[in-house]
TrEMBL record:
InterPro entries: DEAD/DEAH_box_helicase_dom, DEAD/DEAH_RhlB, DEAD_box_RNA_helicase, Helicase_ATP-bd, Helicase_C-like, P-loop_NTPase, RNA-helicase_DEAD-box_CS, RNA_helicase_DEAD_Q_motif. Residues 44-222 form the Helicase ATP-binding domain. Keywords: ATP-binding, Cytoplasm, Helicase, Hydrolase, Nucleotide-binding. It is an enzyme of class 3 (hydrolase). A motif (Q motif) lies at residues 13-41. This is DEAD-box ATP-dependent RNA helicase RhpA. GO terms for cellular component: cytosol. Residues 399-415 have a biased composition (Basic and acidic residues). GO terms for molecular function: ATP binding; hydrolase activity; nucleic acid binding; RNA helicase activity. Residues 13-41 form the DEAD-box RNA helicase Q domain. Residues 388-463 are annotated as: Disordered. One of its GO terms (biological process) is response to temperature stimulus.
Length: 484
């Protein structure tokens, strides 16, 4: 592995100095690109030279342009105006872990290739395959896809990958975290052996390095920041808050910091839905973004947030990568993430492209282990600050009796409105038998004196001369005086 020593980010890389075609230069000029970021200045020349690359940089530093611009430049020799799908095979494949990241990459690549004849398509799960199938069968040169949906199209024979020349694994660590390694291995087995492979990620774990050794050939390590480092333009604050006070703390910090928009990260899909509903009841325009939402609902929530129609976007880690929202002022870690690497990606949604940002995390007593892992990963000491909460709960309006106090004393004391209601006694029946007291019968004998028993009249019955009298059986024979 060849390593490019990281240098100080010298803002001397201008896009006009790159050996890019006029069509690409025109597109990036319209997008307002002037100076390259450090990762772009280091990676683009290496990719243009044809070497495999391992790019390490925190999110929001322009990794998409770092790999897509040189690949588009190398593919310009294949552009043509033919309508035949055979003249437009897949030549560049970009794999992304999430739908949002794949869609974001596709938007950028289509903007870069705006004035070329290269066709760009994006396929991901959660939506109907029919429109994607029609687009693939018309022919595309650049295909951005998530692993699962790409395998669906391969099995349906909607696309072939035997002419792929360039492969990009974007956010490879995330793909390994969510279990895409078997899918990656299957997809890479369909590709030609002779190809240029680029691997970009914000964090490099031992598993990522092992993956690079298996599928990259003598890669160049392009590293512009210490691995797993957080952006220096992001102000990070950690506050000690109880679980029941997190919502009050969020509302208070939004007021104190005068934040117009923010992403609020939680750890579960159910927690995201519940928190979004609670914040809506608090009067904040809120949308939820999590895995149980359909792709159409997720895209609509993102678009509303980007247009400013939504103040808070409550999301799980599906929004931790791939969301490029310009001038996002802040992110909140409502829940500390289970994986320390996710913390780096969460706060990378703010402070992008050199802008300043704010990352606030709420820490409870049960979060000490996660905080220690974040310290170990970022190699920075975390100071947990106390947060004094104001009582912003709505108060009840005063009653008329309270407002009337002071005008004069009342003649009667005011009764409490919450006095218990005593049920009325049941009516007494007006019956002389029940109302008259008990009277003893003077002729009756006292109950304690034993009265002589009156003998019962003897019943005489004549027996038929044909009926024999029953014979008594002794007790020893089981008769017990029984007559047989």
């Amino acid at each position: 592995m060849t390593e490019v020593t990281p240098q100080a980010p010298v803002p001397g890389g201008d896009f006009s100095t790159l050996p890019l075609g006029p069509a690409l230069q025109r597109a990036i000029a319209e997008m307002g690109y002037t100076s390259m970021t450090p990762i772009q200045a280091k990676a683009i020349p290496v990719v243009l030279s044809g070497r495999d690359v391992m790019g390490a940089a925190q999110t929001g530093t322009g990794k998409t342009a770092a790999f897509s611009l040189p690949l588009l430049q190398k593919m310009l020799r294949h552009e043509n105006t033919s309508a035949s799908p055979a003249r437009h095979p897949v030549r560049a494949l970009v794999l992304a872990p999430t739908r949002e990241l794949a869609d974001q990459v596709a938007v950028n690549v289509k903007a870069y290739a705006k004035y070329t004849q290269l066709r760009v398509a994006c396929v991901f799960g959660g939506i109907d395959m029919a429109p994607q199938t029609a687009e693939l069968r018309r022919g595309v040169e650049v295909l951005i896809a998530t692993p699962g949906r790409l395998l669906d199209h391969i099995q349906a024979r909607n696309c072939t990958l035997n002419q792929v020349e360039y492969v990009v694994l974007d956010e490879a660590d995330r793909m390994l975290d969510i279990g895409f390694l078997p899918d990656l291995q299957r997809i890479l087995s369909y590709l030609p052996k002779q190809r240029q492979t680029l691997l970009f990620s914000a964090t490099f774990s031992p598993e990522i390095k092992k993956l690079a050794q298996s599928y990259l050939q003598d890669p160049v390590l392009v590293e512009v920041a210490r691995p797993n480092a957080t952006a220096t333009t992001v102000e990070q604050r950690f506050y000690s808050v109880d679980d029941d006070d997190k919502r009050r703390a969020l509302r208070q910090l939004l007021r104190e910091r005068s934040l117009s928009q923010a992403i609020v990260f939680v750890n579960s899909k159910l927690g995201a839905a519940r928190l979004a509903r609670a914040l809506e009841r608090d009067g904040l325009r809120t949308a939820a973004l999590h895995g149980d939402k359909s792709q159409d609902e997720r895209l609509k929530a993102l678009e509303a947030f980007k247009r400013g129609e939504v103040e808070l976007l409550v999301a799980t880690d599906v929004a931790a990568r791939g969301l490029d929202i310009a001038d996002l002022p802040a992110v909140f870690n409502f829940d500390i993430p289970f994986n320390a690497e996710d913390y780096v990606h969460r706060i990378g949604r703010t402070g992008r492209a050199g802008a300043s940002g704010l990352a606030i995390s709420f820490v409870t007593r049960s979060d000490q282990r996660q905080v220690a892992e974040i310290e170990k990963l970022t190699k920075k000491k975390i100071e947990i600050e106390p947060l004094e909460l104001e009582d912003d709960r709505p108060r009840r309006p005063r009653r008329r009796e309270d407002e009337a106090e002071g005008e004069g004393e009342r003649s009667e004391p005011r009764r409490s409105s919450r006095a218990p209601v005593v049920p009325a006694a049941p009516p007494v029946p007006d019956d002389p038998i029940f109302s008259r007291p008990y009277e003893a019968d003077p002729a009756a004998a006292p109950g304690w004196e034993k009265q002589p028993a009156t003998p019962a009249p003897a019943v005489t019955r004549s027996l038929s001369p044909y009926i024999k009298p029953k014979r008594k059986v002794p007790v020893l024979l089981g008769g017990a005086g029984r007559k047989v």
